[in-house]
Amino acid sequence: MNRRQLLLSALPLAAGLMPGCSSAPKKSALPGPPLPPDPRRPLSPSFASGPVPTSLPQGIRFSYSSCHVPGPFTAMTYDDGPHPSLTPRLLDMLAQWNLKATFFLIGKNAAAYPRIVQRIVAEGHEVANHSWDHPALSKLSDAAVRSQLRRTHDTIFQACGVASLCYRPPYGAITAAQKAWIAREFGYPTIMWSVDPNDWRDRNAGIVSSRIRAGARAGAIILAHDIHATTVAAMPSTLPPLQQRGLRFVSVASLITMEASGPNAGLAMATPSQPITSYAPGTY
Ligand SMILES: [Zn+2]
Q1: What angle do CA 107, 161, 58 make, to 5 degrees?
Q2: What is the pTM of this model?
Q3: Do β-strands 102-105 and 248-249 pair in parallel, antiparallel, or remain unpaired?
Q4: Whether the bond into 82 is cis, omega within 30 of 0
Q5: CA gyration radius for the chain?
Q6: How far away, in angstroms, is 104 Cα from ligand 1 center?
Q7: Which of 72, 104, 147, 159 gives a 20 to 30 Å CA spacing to 166?
Q8: How many other CB atoms are there within 10 angstroms of residue 57's CB atom?
């Protein structure tokens, strides 16, 4: 039995064990089978292009709402952009704070603003797939889901030369069976979240900031939207204070890689410009 046969034989079992998916993120501690490589993606686990990995390691999970990491690492994620003015404003802030994030891009927005996609990548952030026009994927046929993800994957790649390593389903709406075939076909793990400030509903920077600060901890995946002015305005009172608490912001791909790479991987991957000085286990 070769690797692909092993993978395929493991899928129905793994999919059957996956917890049901709703709009609320759920933790899945089940290890998934190895994901197949994307043929257009470099195969070596190289960090040469910066802090964002160019591939994911073998043996990662199908689905993540948070990661088990050995240090104070967390992932800030921004969905639904790029936005023509708010995303650049956010990028200015992230650069000032030397903070890396993941942008889950809508394909049609990436097609409209390819220069912003290029800037996101040039400044060391991760770009990832958030569908073409934000439907609830759980209600679509496999063919329609495939089209949503493929078209977006290709558009992001054409804009910036980087292949997305993961995707986030709009509204978190995805079934266990869909997660399994998307992992098999695209090599994408499903990225949910563990901190949701409901910034799309509550357009109040103070509320958004306090919710994120209350939820942020090591291994967290924090959901936000860079298409809302209030969310971007919330960042100065949110992210620098969390950095001062010792948290270090990395891409989702880095967080997944840390979890998959063993208990000491996180410390080894800390960027020299952000020395860990105040982390104590159990603080976050
Ligand atoms: Zn979205």
Answers
A1: 90
A2: 0.78
A3: unpaired
A4: yes
A5: 18
A6: 8
A7: 72
A8: 17
